[in-house]
Amino acid sequence: MSPRAASRLTSLGFREVYDYVAGEADWFASGLAREGRDAAIPRVGDVARGDVPTCRLTDLVGDVQVRVRTAGWDICLVVNDECVVLGRIRAPALAADSTVPVEQVMEAGPTTVRPDARLADVAHRMHDKNTHSVVVTTSDGRLVGLIRRDDVGRTL
User: Fold this and answer.
1) What is the rounded distance in angstroms from the CA atom of residue 89 to the CA atom of residue 54?
2) Of all helices (H) and strands (E), which one includes residue 78?
3) Which fold has domain 44-155?
4) Is pLDDT of 56 > 60?
5) How far apart are CA 154 and CA 156, in angstroms?
6) Which of 56, 89, 114, 153 suits 143 as a labelling partner, its CA being 20 to 30 A distant?
7) What is the distance between the alpha carbons of residues 93 and 89, in angstroms, rounded to a whole number?
8) What is the pLDDT of residue 8?
9) How many Cβ atoms from other residues are within 10 Å of residue 128's Cβ?
10) Domain residues of the chain, as ranges?
């Protein structure tokens, strides 16, 4: 809303008025409520799995391997203290020397999509590129989760 609209609402007695300037796409990407004619269209954020294992650059591969397998996954996302995605470790890299830091075996800068992306569009891209999973982040790179092709198929 514009500063003028926010000011007018305040003058009408509303106490909690926010000037949200990032835009509709960022609003949707943050997982906030949708309405209108496109509200029913399935979005990536609707199926993103937030339970994907995470680790830090300095974690040892052996420790991460145990966590990932215990959680029932075959992938781990490398994040910093603010949960910004820095990389990804897939199953083959988890078989590396257990005393090696994650930073040495991770794939840096994985491709990401935003939670507000239309699920059907991302599903087509995943199929075309033969990708089994995609990392989902906010516009500032913070982890939302991971979508898997089989989860997408069940939703669509």
Assistant:
1) 10
2) strand 75-79
3) CBS-domain (3.10.580)
4) yes
5) 6
6) 153
7) 6
8) 79
9) 8
10) 1-39, 44-155
Distance CA 114, CA 48 (A): 10
| Residue 51: pLDDT over 90 | yes
**Residue where the block lists tokens 């089994």:** 132
pLDDT at 9: 83
Look at phi and psi of residue 135 and say left if phi exceeds 0, alpha if psi is from -120 to 50, else beta.
beta
Work out the average pLDDT over 124-142: 92
Supply the DSSP string of 87-138, one letter for each residue.
EEEEHHHHTS-TTSBGGGTSEES--EE-TTSBHHHHHHHHHHTT-SEEEEE-
Residue 64: is its pLDDT beyond 90?
yes
Tokens at 114, concatenated: 């935003």
Q: How far is CA 49 from CA 29, 62, 71, 112, 147, in A?
A: 14, 24, 13, 14, 6
Q: What is the mean pLDDT of residues 129-147?
A: 92
